Amino acid sequence: MTAIFSALADPTRRGIMERLYVRGETRATSLAMPFRISMPAISRHLRVLEDARLIERRRMGRLHLIRARRAGLEEARRWMTHYAAAWDSALDALDELMRRDRDRATKEDR
């Protein structure tokens, strides 16, 4: 999970993931174009995404075809969903505590 969040912390890698989700399988050289970065730099970004299991690479001769692994984000989504529910519960409890405190202060002012 740390690898996933680390990989997605970089705006270039997030941009690569967006392009892959929108366009589907794409040549590695095509991924470099909108970012105006060198192929060695794009290769390093792809390696990080691959290590985080967010993308898959296949080779057809000299072509490197890259595609997003839809299951790659599933673990992070589950983690965020779990904690979002806990955060919502904690915030609801805080709201209730603040409401009670406000009501108590209003009664004391009367």
Write the layout of secondary structure elements.
Elements: H1 2-8, H2 11-23, E1 26-27, H3 28-32, H4 39-51, E2 55-60, E3 63-68, H5 74-109
Antiparallel strand pairs: 1-3, 2-3
Question: Care to describe what's here?
Answer:
By secondary structure, the chain is α+β, with helices and mostly antiparallel strands. It has five helices and three strands, in the order ααβααββα. The chain has helices at 2-8, 11-23, 28-32, 39-51, 74-109, and strands at residues 26-27, 55-60, 63-68. Strands 1-3-2 form a three-stranded antiparallel beta sheet. Helix 1 (2-8) runs antiparallel to helix 4 (39-51). The longest helix has 36 residues, at 74-109.
Total number of helices: 5
Strand proportion, as a percent range, falls in: 5-15%
The global form is elongated
Low-confidence stretches: none
Structural class: alpha+beta
Task: Return the CATH topology of the largest domain.
Answer: Arc Repressor Mutant, subunit A
Fraction in helix: 55-70%
Overall pLDDT confidence: 89
CATH architecture of the largest domain: Orthogonal Bundle
Q: State the CATH superfamily name of the largest domain.
A: Winged helix-like DNA-binding domain superfamily/Winged helix DNA-binding domain
CATH C-level name of the largest domain: Mainly Alpha
Our count of domains comes out at 2
